[in-house]
Write a structure and sequence with these properties.
Strand order of the largest sheet: 1-2-4-3-5-6-7-8-9
Helix content: 25-40%
Largest sheet: 9 strands, mixed
Strand content: 5-15%
Shape: globular
Number of strands: 9
């Protein structure tokens, strides 16, 4: 929807350098972790190390023997095992765990930020059912409750994890205007649709139920996703809490609503059945495409189910404000996906803001104005409704990516 051009500038505390890549990060500030220490029943656990184990260590130490094996770690963390096991004895000691945690805590990307990691929102043992909470380090209990921005990672629904939220959320949280949450969800090697949206909605409900604990205003929630994560934040925002099939029954907070206040969609698929309308780097209709893996069968052979997994199918006057940014050289998710959604929302006279990023491919947005407009959008819908609307003027990015087409 074309809105009045804004003359306001909302800047972030650091230059725009968001990298949509999976980060190898280990938990920070475990003293603030929300998982309870396992009961010891008065028995010795045989630990010989003088290093006091962190809450995270105790959580992973399933047999309570004072050391961690590779198999005891959640799958996303197993790849770090050899790096943390500095003496090469095949185990991670509390001291080795503490050393890597201390190094991560000094990472410049997280300077001034406290992170509560790997909180299970479904109250089960699935490492994908976890989230990380990012807050300013000097936040105190009783401070004014802040809006929360929830990040959902991309990766074609088949890879990626919540760690990629660190680079996205850190500069936002550092402003001390927001709390950040990055959530994980089940990938297609584990479960097909609608498991992914069930998980995302369960995470939203968990955030609302535990808002007081983290200084969050449960009535002010924005969601931001990239690629497959863009698809999921659109589904979260556009389906509200009215569809029981999409709501699912993950977690214990079914009394909470999964509605959110606003959505930032970066280059997410919106109409899965039309992804092949423009030739790109992959055949989206193929049996092994990310979309077909999501649905569980070739999408053109399951059109009814695929439509129900497409955000555009849920466009209604009840939808929250949506900001979409998409590169005009995107060969993975065609920009037509963004245009179709914007047109559908315009017809309903909703606040849909579509910004074309000229010369940008799939997420390579090289211009500080991108971040400024995202921050202005969140300011308008989560903090101050008098904030001017975000301009839809095209943003110029860097050099166009090399052209590659599907044969």
């Amino acid at each position: 929807m074309k809105l009045a051009k804004s003359t306001s500038v909302f800047s972030c505390s650091v230059p725009f350098a968001i990298v949509m890549a999976t980060l190898i990060l280990t938990p920070v500030n475990d003293a603030n972790a929300q998982t309870k220490t396992p009961e010891k029943n008065g028995k010795s656990n045989g630990r010989t190390s003088q290093q006091e184990p962190t809450q995270r260590f105790l959580r992973f130490d399933k047999n309570n023997d004072g050391k961690l094996t590779r198999d005891e770690l959640p799958q996303p963390l197993q790849r770090n095992f050899n790096r943390v096991d500095t003496n090469g004895d095949g185990f991670i000691s509390p001291a080795e765990d503490a050393k890597i945690g201390n190094r991560t805590a000094t990472d410049d990307r997280l300077k001034g930020i406290s992170v509560d990691r790997d909180i299970n929102y479904a109250e089960d043992n699935n490492p994908r059912h976890t989230l990380d909470v990012y807050r300013a380090s000097d936040a105190k209990q009783g401070d004014k409750k802040l809006p929360v921005i929830v990040f959902i990672h991309g990766g074609g629904w088949q890879k990626g994890n919540k760690n990629s939220g660190a680079n996205v959320l850190a500069p936002i949280v550092r402003t001390k205007k927001y709390v950040g949450v990055s959530i994980g969800y089940r990938l297609t090697d584990e479960a097909i649709w609608p498991a992914q949206i069930h998980d995302c909605k369960a995470a939203i409900r968990w955030i609302k139920a535990n808002a007081d604990q983290f200084g969050i205003d449960p009535e002010k929630i924005g969601v931001w996703g990239t690629s497959a994560g863009g698809h999921l934040v659109l589904m979260v925002g556009m389906t509200g809490d009215a569809d029981e099939i999409l709501e699912g029954a993950v977690g214990k907070h079914l009394d909470q609503s999964s509605r959110v206040n606003c959505v930032v969609n970066w280059f997410g698929p919106t109409d899965l059945l039309s992804m092949n309308d423009v030739p790109g780097t992959i055949d989206h209709d193929a049996p092994n495409s990310p979309e077909s893996k999501l649905i569980g069968k070739p999408i053109q052979e399951a059109k009814a189910l695929t439509r129900k997994a497409s955000p555009i199918h849920y466009a209604s006057k009840d939808d929250p404000p949506i900001l979409t940014m998409h590169g005009d050289q995107d060969r993975l998710v065609p920009i037509g996906q963004a245009i179709k959604l914007d047109e559908a929302l315009d017809q309903l006279k909703l606040e849909s803001t579509f910004i074309k990023i000229k010369n940008a491919g799939h997420g390579r947005f090289q211009n500080d104005d991108v971040q400024k407009r995202v921050m202005q959008f969140f300011q308008r819908h989560l903090i101050d409704p008098k904030t001017p609307p975000v301009s839809e003027d095209t943003i110029q990015s860097g050099k166009p990516p090399a052209s590659r087409s599907r044969k």
